[in-house]
Amino acid sequence: MSKLAIFGGPKAVKSDPGDIFDWPIITKEDEEAVLDVIRRGAMSATEITLKFEEEFAKWQGSRYALAFNNGTAALHAAMYACGIGVGDEIISPSVTFWGSTAQVFSLGGTVTFAEVDPDTLCIDPNDIEHRIGERTKAIMVVHYLGHPADMDPIMEIAKRHNIKVIEDVSHAQGGLYKGRKLGTIGDVGAMSLMSGKSLAIGEGGMLVTDDIEAYERAIVMGHYERFKDTFETEYLRPFAGLPMGGYKYRMHQVSSAVGRVQLKYYDERCEEIRKAMNYFWDLLEGVPGIKTHRVPENSNSNMAGWYAARGLYREEELGGLSVTRFAEAVRAEGVLDCTPGCNAALHTHELFYSCDVYGHGKPTRIANAIRDVRELDNSLPISEKIGSMIYAIPWFKRYYPEIIEEYANAFRKVSENYKELLEGDPGNPPKLGGWHFFKHTED
Ligand SMILES: *Cc1c(COP(=O)(O)O)cnc(C)c1O
């Protein structure tokens, strides 16, 4: 194959990508839905949101869907819905966006972090059970970068210990695990629908559940106008009318309006995404150093909208070449987004170690806890080095085989010529990846 572009050779990617990366797909129908809301001055009303919830619940296969102003709020309410309060603990993977866990502090609770599986990038089911303590109330599962977490063993552990499971579906809306829709397997599902995600409606979030008590608890936290004294959950009734959390979590109706249109076409658009992404990985099957992050074929699971697509890096197959150098060479071939890393491990941030958020006179992480749940250094080795094991791949939204082939060729070419890159490899910086992770937020 020809000389690497980083050394002056011709680039592997030559064609204009056109609209292959454009997302979300916005048509006249979205525009008209938005115009209707703003022309009627209905931005803060709820009639469109209620319709969106009804359609969402049906699509999700859940009894209830409750819309939120963002995913962080939906996950906060999911924790409250599961009864998490002062002194309680949740178990979360350390490699995730902070919005999966940081809200637990404001409930007086805390988190213990578990390891992620190096192939799925989701919580490792074998690293959960020994973390369960007297006050553990829930496991937070994140279907990371579109990959479904291994729910069967997780549900089995939760049942045995009588604790709840919350699914953070922010990366995998509409995805399947063994034929079951993500978000409906645990007790409560909650997700972001913000513009960077695969189901992108603007700022927004959604909570889904089949459990009336969980649903009503989610309402009382931040949907005061929907908190009625007719609630089925008797102990909540006396407080109707005011938000028990002191939060206001209503979805903006411009988001609900866009959401209704986006949802209509979402499954069909995701199917095209998966066709394109699977084609990309089929082209690269067996190429040394790079490994696919996807579910096995015919598993009846899928990668949903393949949010923030990434590949697994195995430097030992490329003579120890750093992912930093590897990605630099791939970018030189014309794959502009090939950056190393993903979310940095949360347990390495001082918010989860020393920070006294509420003036308890001690770190918030242990302020109300019955034990010191903080991790020691090197206790989650995969999470701590995850940045060196991951790189971004193109997130194709359209199935244009000729273009996809050019991008795949860029990765193949760098892998085949890796020896030329070993000399002058600066190695990885001390920290790869960031707290925000996606391009719409600068670290
Ligand atoms: C985006 C995201 C959230 C938070 O959602 P927002 O809508 O941005 O508040 C939570 N969890 C994960 C895994 C996310 O990626």
Describe it.
The chain is of the alpha/beta class and 443 residues long. It has a domain at 28-260: 3-Layer(aba) Sandwich (Aspartate Aminotransferase, domain 2), CATH 3.40.640. Helices cover 30% and strands 11% of the residues. The protein has helices at residues 28-40, 47-60, 71-81, 151-161, 212-222, 253-284, 323-332, 364-367, 381-385, 401-416, 418-422, and strands at residues 64-68, 89-93, 110-114, 136-142, 164-168, 176-177, 180-181, 188-192, 205-209, 290-291, 310-313, 390-392. The strands form three sheets. A seven-stranded mixed sheet has the order 1-9-8-5-4-2-3, with helices on both faces. The chain is globular, with a radius of gyration of 22 Å. It starts with 27 loop residues before the first helix and ends in a 21-residue tail after the last helix. The relative contact order is 0.17. The model has no long low-confidence stretch (mean pLDDT 96). Pyridoxal-5'-phosphate binds next to helix 3.
Structure in a nutshell:
This protein has eleven helices and twelve strands. The chain has 443 residues and is of the alpha/beta class.
Overall shape: it is: globular
Strand order of the largest sheet: 1-9-8-5-4-2-3
Bound molecules: pyridoxal-5'-phosphate
Low-confidence stretches: none
- The CATH topology label of the domain at 28-260 is Aspartate Aminotransferase, domain 2
The number of helical elements comes to 11
Helical content stands at 25-40%
